[in-house]
């Protein structure tokens, strides 16, 4: 009795970590630009395909490919922000929603053209057996993913709180004019923040790649989850998103254990609706101004 | 140091600044006074590069800066301390100050400038680790001044620094501005508090409906009957 619950708790936390990292990106972007990135799921998929291509064509181990993925995704995010997001930065939010949603469709179809709709997968030798600890089976890619998530979150924390660029990002998110008058180039900071957010999506994609089938539309499921988690944690509150990611991971896996797999998604959305009804600023959200 | 030549600035279709010309010499302190809505803030936004003028020039050390981006203008030593302070409230006092020296040249001197700022504004040192948003209005104004100083300005522009401050705090703050001027920094003070602002300055400009209505030595302006009537209520 206790073992399945513990098993499910572990699975939930490990998976929740990946959600947390992806949602951290959504929340960071929202915090700085007040834009919800509905292309985040598609960007996770892009991260998966970059990882897959490096693995399939050059036999690069997914975990080794991480630095390449991070650099590529950061650059991609930076350029996307400059070219598409920046022109609509002060537009009404429904226009911004349509733009990022459109971006998501373009990315998905681009992947479809380049890589076809065929499912792909990465099989890593020695990674398919689970580690057994006291009757709890721990999936190796999930465990590694969790470790990398912790490291990546720590890295983002240092970046945001201990560097001038990070301080400039926080400054821009709360006080644009004050930041501008200190010589901070707000447009550049926005592009950097978007790049960091997209890099988070990319890392999540790399970490997910060895765990599941890869196809151009696989990010859709993550898109909504990331958004829900970011709202749950309080949009713009990136550590709230991390906590909410872990919670959603556990809820999903517990619901799946108790009610069956097909119910777990519904439980998440149910919680989402409840959060919107009773605490719309999220679990850790501050009062809206 | 700074000269504004025949500047016109629009806000949408409204013409806010209508042919303003003014000049600030090296090491001088001038006050720009005028009532609410005279166009003071628009003029300052244009000088700092936040708004682009329709026509006219803004010369800093002889070079036209009116087309430059705000960061380039800050890098050339023109720094504005904005109205309402515009601090980063969730960040600590020290982090706020450090961001004042965000640009390359100022960053090189960050340590020394920080020591200088703490010496000039000793209260800030005690509050260094507190979130700027938790401070009182007067202390926040000091942080804003300190943050401006961190950029190593050649010319420092104050936009309504006394707004919302008690008379006692206003005096303290004006005293700090005087110290900054005495240390060799050129100062442009924009104020609704006409009497205090003119008392401190070398020269003054009076802005009315987007035009310079009066200008001259600050002491003379304070004696001007018209100005006394409209702004000092005497």
Task: Trace the largest sheet of chain B across and list its strands.
Answer: 6-7-8-3-9-10
Helix/strand order of chain A: HHHHEEHHHHHHH
User: How many helical stretches of chain A?
Assistant: 11
- Largest interface, C-beta closer than 8 angstroms, per-chain residues: A-B, 16 and 27 residues
In percent, how helical is the residue content of chain A?
over 70%
Assembly context of the chains: heterodimer
Roughly how much helix do the residues of chain B carry, as a percent range? 25-40%
Per DSSP E runs of 2 or more residues, the count of β-strands of chain B stands at 10
Q: Biggest sheet of chain A: strands side by side, in what order?
A: 1-2
Shape verdict of chain A: globular
**Class from helix and strand fractions of chain B:** alpha/beta
Low-pLDDT ranges of chain A: none
H and E string of chain B: EEEHEEHEHHHHHEHEHEEHH
Structural class of chain A: mainly alpha
Describe the secondary structure blueprint for this structure.
The complex is a heterodimer of chains A (289) and B (234).
Chain A: H1 2-33, H2 40-58, H3 66-85, H4 93-115, E1 131-133, E2 136-138, H5 140-162, H6 164-174, H7 176-181, H8 186-208, H9 219-232, H10 238-259, H11 261-278
Antiparallel strand pairs in A: 1-2
Helix pairs in contact in A: 1-5, 1-8, 1-9, 1-10, 2-4, 2-8, 2-9, 3-8, 5-6, 5-8, 6-8, 9-10, 9-11, 10-11
Chain B: E1 2-11, E2 14-24, E3 29-33, H1 40-47, E4 55-60, E5 63-64, H2 70-75, E6 78-81, H3 93-100, H4 104-108, H5 110-120, H6 122-126, H7 137-149, E7 155-159, H8 167-182, E8 186-191, H9 194-200, E9 203-208, E10 211-217, H10 218-223, H11 225-232
